[in-house]
Design goal:
Strand content: 5-15%
Number of helices: 13
Helix content: 55-70%
Order of helices and strands: HHHHHHHHHHHEEEEEEEEEEEEHH
Distance between the termini: 107 Å
């Protein structure tokens, strides 16, 4: 029994080493093979934005290692194979034969086990079961890892673009998480307590928020993210106003879930401006332009006409003579004739009377800063006494002549009667993304200045 136990222990020890060596060799071999898709991932990242190229290559290596280990376990050696491995050290199949006769108690089987144990003790110093992987597999593994590392350190603008898009998407993810809170609040509104018109109002808000969520998902630059956040900020404000109006119409807005949705929309509208600033988009603003020569200011618009001229160094002499039509906001027009004498060492000339040199006083009549309080609606025929010519039969042009020059064919209406409608249309366009990216702040500032 002692000999049988000793033989089994030797065979089991050999089996454990063989299985360990098998797993290590297969793991190294499969890891080296997995470096091939890792190399392709890194090469792809040089041509196309792929932020997770390094992580994907690492996953390929780990997957190869795990697959190799599992394959080694699947192909593990049994006791008979381990006995055969011991015989390869010069035991001439004694260990295999002894293993096959291990359960037999005949005299022949006993002698076989005794002989195998004796010869195994003699060869003990020569029996060395290595657990190191094959050298070729080790070399392939190092070459694979080295190739992936070298490619991963190659500088590329595409990698920088991928990094930028990843940062934008992470920021957009935060925006979407907050937006999802409002969408969930809108879904929790008790629709049974609302009228059909109120249901449609809540449904329109949900659809608008879903569109913003999709726009945030498509954002791939700070500019597109800022544009999406700008539109979303406007939608938050509109949602807060709409929900406030809806809450006023309900007798118990808290139970209907409208009050909580309104408070959430208000909080998001207040916070969204700071979040947009953190996105790192340069601000765009529209201001008023100044004309120092004429001393006039205007915002957006077109001006036509002839303006002021002055000559003189220490003194001033001005002549104003101009006609023009303002198209837009802040346009100036006026007619006037002036004459004046300069003060100082200057000569003044003008359309009127008077040239002067030295000191003197002059007076002119007229104005050039006339403010228009009307706009023209194209293709609407109006009854304007200042227009001359045929207003209804001129089919070849949108313009016709009056006594002071060209005029746009249309009806003159009061400015205040249409600016509100134009403002609403502009804000609706911002909310629906009709304008180019980055122009939303310009358009909003423009109409806010008009309404002041």
């Amino acid at each position: 029994m002692e000999i049988k136990k000793k033989l089994l222990e030797q065979i089991r020890h050999c089996k454990r080493k063989m299985n360990l060596a098998k797993c290590m060799d297969c793991g190294v071999c499969f890891t080296a093979a997995a470096g091939i898709p890792g190399i392709f991932c890194e090469l792809f990242a040089l041509c196309r934005p792929f932020y997770y190229a390094h992580q994907t290559a690492l996953v390929c290596f780990l997957a190869g290692t795990l697959t190799g280990i599992l394959y080694g376990i699947y192909k593990r050696a049994d006791m008979k194979q381990a006995a055969g491995r011991l015989d390869s050290f010069g035991l001439q199949e004694r260990m295999v034969t002894a293993w096959e006769q291990m359960e037999s108690e005949t005299e022949f089987a006993v002698r076989l086990r005794q002989d195998a144990c004796y010869r195994c003790e003699q060869k003990k110093e020569q029996i060395k079961i290595s657990i190191l992987p094959d050298k070729k597999h080790i070399l392939a593994f190092f070459l694979s890892v080295l190739a992936v590392l070298c490619i991963s350190f190659i500088p590329s603008p595409v990698r920088e673009l991928a990094k930028l898009r990843h940062e934008v998407q992470e920021k957009a993810k935060e925006e979407k998480e907050e937006l999802d809170e409002l969408m969930e609040a809108l879904e929790d509104v008790d629709m049974d307590s609302l009228t059909e018109e109120q249901k449609a109002q809540v449904k329109a808000l949900s659809d608008a928020m879903q569109l913003s969520r999709e726009e945030l998902s498509r954002a791939d630059s700070w500019e597109s993210l800022a544009a999406a956040a700008e539109r979303l900020s406007y939608k938050y404000e509109q949602a807060e106003q709409s929900l406030s109006s809806l809450a006023d119409q309900l007798s118990n807005p808290e139970d209907a879930g409208v009050a909580s949705a309104k408070d959430l929309a208000k909080a998001m509208a207040n916070q969204n401006g700071q979040q947009t600033a953190q996105a790192g988009t340069p601000s765009v603003s529209a201001g008023n332009g100044e004309n120092e020569n004429g001393g006039s200011e205007g915002s957006t618009g077109k001006e036509s006409g002839e303006s002021e001229s002055s000559q003189g160094k220490d003194g001033e002499s001005k002549e104003e003579s101009g006609t023009g039509g303002g198209d837009g906001t802040g346009g100036e027009s006026g007619t006037g004739n002036g004459s004046g004498n300069g003060n100082g060492n200057g000569d003044g000339t003008g359309d009127g009377a008077g040239t002067g040199n030295g000191t003197g006083n002059g007076r002119g009549e007229g104005s050039s800063n006339t403010v228009h309080d009307y706009v023209s609606i194209p293709n609407h025929v109006g009854d304007d006494a200042s227009l001359t010519g045929n207003k209804t039969e001129n089919q070849d042009s949108d313009y016709y002549r009056n006594q002071n020059g060209l005029a746009w064919e249309g009806e003159h209406v009061d400015y205040d009667s249409v600016i509100g409608q134009y403002t609403d249309n502009a804000y609706e366009g911002i909310a629906k993304g009709r304008y180019p990216s980055g122009m939303e702040p310009v358009i909003r500032d423009y109409f806010e200045n008009l309404n002041h």
